[in-house]
Amino acid sequence: MRPLQKEIIEFEQTKPEIEPETEIRRSVDFLKRYLKQHSFLKTLVLGISGGQDSTLAGRLSEIAVTELREETGNNDYQFIAVRLPYGEQADESDCMQAIEWMKADKVVRVNIKDSVDAMVKAIEDNSLTISDFNKGNIKARARMIAQYAIAGENSGVVVGTDHAAENITGFYTKYGDGAADVTPLFRLDKRQGKSMLAKLDAPKNLYEKVPTADLEEDRPSLPDEKALGVSYRDIDDYLEGKDIAPENAEIIENWYKKTAHKRRLPYTVFDD
Q1: Which of 12, 23, 105, 166 is catalytic?
Q2: Is 19 one of the annotated active-site residues of the chain?
Q3: Is 70 a catalytic residue?
Q4: How large is the greatest C-alpha to C-alpha distance in the chain, in angstroms?
Q5: What is the pLDDT of residue 39?
């Protein structure tokens, strides 16, 4: 095992293999425990993209609040699934299929297009230019603003979808999809999340679809693996302690080092 690989595995807390049913229970109990420890909180809020990660986090959230209602007799516990399209979303049908499958208690739809476009215009009115890539990050942050607004009005917390294969590469927007109160998927790699969805009898098309952030208009539906330059299979193998091609290991480690600032926020004077 490579020296940095061992350090990364310890940081991400991944395992060579998991028992899906055990990890499902671990995530559900984590969410329940968080809500019970903060008695004023009654709602889990999550943006649904129609992909693997939000589908899994959404189902875990619904199981958690359903069990809390049954155990406490308090029907105030709820899970709100949030649709956050920028205009019309290409995989809208996947999003609605995911929401129907996870049995969300409530669905809210917030179209972020007007707010994102207004922000871009307000900045560019100052003789500045917003790149397409930067606009994509604005979209991600606008989605998180909406989720926190909904959580704030419903005694809620925002559920994040960050997992080890995403965290290791920093493949998320700082203060966008990287912002959340609870992250029930932390410690899992991509294939482990798939195995949990399979155990939960999720529709295969939702977790076998090509992962894409779909934030850039110049490169719509750009696959994550193309943007990263390495496959999730290699990332998962790396996180499970397996040997992979040295050139692919170097790509992963370069992403890890380059995005270290995202995993340690905010920096203080004591971090020098």
Answers
A1: 166
A2: no
A3: no
A4: 57
A5: 92
